[in-house]
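Ligand-bound model needed. zinc ion.
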Amino acid sequence: MGRQSRQTKSEACEDSWDRTSQDRVGTLTVVTRRHAQICTSSHQLEDAVLGARGLEACPGDKVSFNLDTSAGASKLVVHEILERRNCLKRSSDRKTKLLVANIDVLLVVVAPPPLFNTIAIDRVLTAAAQQAIPACIVLNKVDLKKHDDGTQALLATYRSAGCHCVETSATTGEGMQALFALLTQETLHAAAFTGISGVGKSTILRALLPEATIRTGEVSVRTGQGRQTTSQTVGHLFQRAATAPALLFDLPGVQQFGVCHLTESEVHAGFPELERLRSQCKFSDCSHHAEPACAVREAVLQGALAASRYRSYLDMIKEIRAAARY
Ligand SMILES: Nc1nc2c(ncn2[C@@H]2O[C@H](COP(=O)(O)OP(=O)(O)OP(=O)(O)O)[C@@H](O)[C@H]2O)c(=O)[nH]1
Ligand SMILES: [Mg+2]
Ligand SMILES: [Zn+2]
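Prediction:
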């Protein structure tokens, strides 16, 4: 599949896989329809095929696999997906897509306006909260930040909602140390970078992984703007001095992060600052939409609650209700 895997595959097969047909456990770093790349327990990247039909695998999945030497060929075959600790999902065309599993932190990369898309951010934060995945906002491209562009006010909204935020510039290196420190924590084994197209997810990864071959061509297409858009999730090995390597997943930016797979109460849970006001609404089951004496709407009018967060909340509830009508 990739350059990294081709370098290691033959040695790995000859040295160890040929001698055993025992099941091994690894983590999927890339998943296509029938093929995958596995990070083995010794941190080798190997190509594999997905064995059983209907195996719904996603990057980050822990899998068991073995070596199949039948028919004269030797290939690694994934035959079981182990239980997931968590899985970030989005809805698309009334189907639920599995994006990445078993991560310790979701890095939601954002950039100054016009790329600071609060609707997209709030959707992914809510989907992460539903899976109890800790999230951190990475405001990238701080080198472009202007004093009065509203970026700090937007970031403050997330800080007051309880979300950890760091500020970086992948091109000048500013703030990258804070991100590096976060990713080198011993308790972190896997992290995923998400965010709309163009905010700099792949550029951050390139800065963090100087020797990594971030593949082009196979996983990227050149857009009209002359930049590379990631079209497939790829997990990269992040070597760390003090502890075992971590896996960093680069997710493609998506146009529409659908949330139909969530319930209304799961959306409520994604907005803790709105939920805190519920006890002051006239109705205990207030949807904060058009009910009288709604403390949430009042707080938005007073400027005590970010209007953008309220809009995101309404937008998600509307989508869930519309989907339920079918
Ligand atoms: N000024 C500035 N430009 C940056 C920074 N980080 C990335 N860029 C530029 O932003 C553009 C998009 O970066 P990518 O890393 O491809 O963005 P992405 O989030 O991976 O985009 P998708 O793969 O389409 O989801 C490129 O032209 C980068 O050079 C930064 O910190 N500052
Ligand atoms: Mg990218
Ligand atoms: Zn209300």
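The chain has three domains: 3-81, 87-250, 264-324.
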